[in-house]
Amino acid sequence: MSELHDTVHRVTKRITERSADSRRSYLDLMEREGDRHADRNVALACSNLAHGFAATGEDKPSIAARAGPNIGIVTAYNDTISAHQPFGAYPPQMKVWAREVGATCQVAGATPAMCDGVTQGTDGMELSLFSRDVIAMATAVSLSHSMYDAVAMLGMCDKIVPGLLIGGLRFGYLPTMFFSAGAMPTGISNKEKQRVRQLYAEGKATRAQLLESEAASYHSPGVCTFYGTANSNQMMLDLMGLSLPGAAFINPGTPLRQALTRASVHRLAAITRSGNDYRPLARCVDEKSIVNATVGLLATGGSTNHAIHIPAFARAAGVHIDWSDMAELSRVVPMLARVYPNGADDVNHFQAAGGLGFVVRELLDAGLIHHDITTVHGENLAAYALEPWLDGETLSWRDPGPSGDETILRGAANPFAPEGGMRLVEGNLGRACFKTSAVSEDHWTVEAPCAVFDDQHDVAEAFARGELDRDVIVVVRFQGPRANGMPELHKLTPVLGVLQDRGYRVALVTDGRMSGASGKVPAAIHCTPEALGGGPLAYLRNGDIVRLCAESGNLSTSADFAGREPASMGESQHGTSRELFAMFRAGADSAEHGASAMLAAAGL
């Protein structure tokens, strides 16, 4: 294990100094709350307690007598999301496993869990980002009963894990672990899936052919196998030490997956206040673990959505990190993984090649992450430089050894690229994120006339009419958090990919989001200030020359805005309950601060 890299040390120190007052206030609050809720027989009157354990059956005597720790389960189960479908079976099993160590389990509550894969390109996507705030509040409601000594979080996908984490951090005096359901087995190749999508965009494949291809990719229970936001969440939990080591990608329904879930229940029962190894969430999530999550994101080319989520959940712990911090880290963090959409292979191949145990080991050895953090398992993060396996029927961990496939996973001494997967671009059009990991360096710089749209569907129509068959920077504005909830614009990827394949210099600039599955097209996303309210994108006009350069970090236009009036957004849309989310849009802060109305209103 090497000495900590100077840049990692410097950025962590800056974040710590910036966060000193808010972090101290947070920890003081958690200490007071922990003391106040330490004994539910004191915190709750007999009538309250009786309500709380009335339906617990054989566990009722144990809960009433505080015979052992009571674990509150917050579940995001539903059977529309393939990743969350396995969670339906977890609570009954977890109750049995808790009794094995003298503990009990109760489902404390459930949160909504929407799938961006289902809502891509539909009105429902405008609810997606703010579902994170709803999930955080639902988590808080679930834990408000003061019945629990620890928390088991059942969630995997895009906004769900950040939402669970934000809500859980406000009860940070409770030990908390995250439970994965694992990745679905590999379906058709990602290259084939991408090929059919582009053929459909060109009108060369039918809807039936497209659906057949998609169904062969997303085909069973488990998280989608590409390295998008859901799997980036699982990586992040490992790098922060909030789940058992290496539990992220083990397939559902396997003996190893069941062994990890059972061991997680046992471990959670062992780290409560009543024992001698108390590890509350507030102590686990600090400046160092947040830097680790960021470094892991950069080293693996993870989802750009975490440029929004990391600042958001960090604020819930009293820590303030921004895009400048992330970009500075990216300059020194090597790219260790190539997983689709940054490569040809999926997370199952990544896991077989060495997985997160390999990544953690390499980053520790290079001094790029903090080893001295409080984790839910082991003495420090070194316990996460291992991979789980079954020695007969016994769950064990072992060194992952060398990379099993250097086209997918490489060591820090021989990386795919000398730096991480994100660049900050800024200029007179604002600040934005550029995901370099999936984009060839030949496309890092694009300068061209822009074509301005206020709706992603208009881009597809212009493409169909042949109006974009040229060098062009497509600007899609009024897609920010305050405008329409900042939907992902992943439906643009096949269209823009076709144009790029035709030999045109193409890029996207938007105040919206791209998916964690965004691919080969250069894109400046999360542009802030957003167009609504007079951000620079509101002043652009068709034909203005725009320059996007990840190499120099530039996002600018040569157009003179003097005398121009900002474009206005169309009327706010109703339907699919979007009107109910008006308060979230009205109160949202910037993407760089986490795009949260809830955190802004709370003054965090």
TrEMBL record:
Coiled-coil region(s): none
Requisite cofactors: [4Fe-4S] cluster
Domain Dihydroxy-acid/6-phosphogluconate dehydratase C-terminal: 408-595
Metabolic or biological pathway, per its Swiss-Prot or TrEMBL entry: Carbohydrate metabolism; Entner-Doudoroff pathway
Claim: Lyase is one of the keywords in the record: yes
One Pfam family hit: ILV_EDD_C
Catalytic activity, reaction form: 6-phospho-D-gluconate = 2-dehydro-3-deoxy-6-phospho-D-gluconate + H2O
Domain of life: Bacteria
Database matches in SUPFAM superfamilies: IlvD/EDD N-terminal domain-like, LeuD/IlvD-like
PROSITE patterns reported in the protein's UniProt record: ILVD_EDD_1, ILVD_EDD_2
Family per record: Belongs to the IlvD/Edd family.
Protein name (database record): Phosphogluconate dehydratase
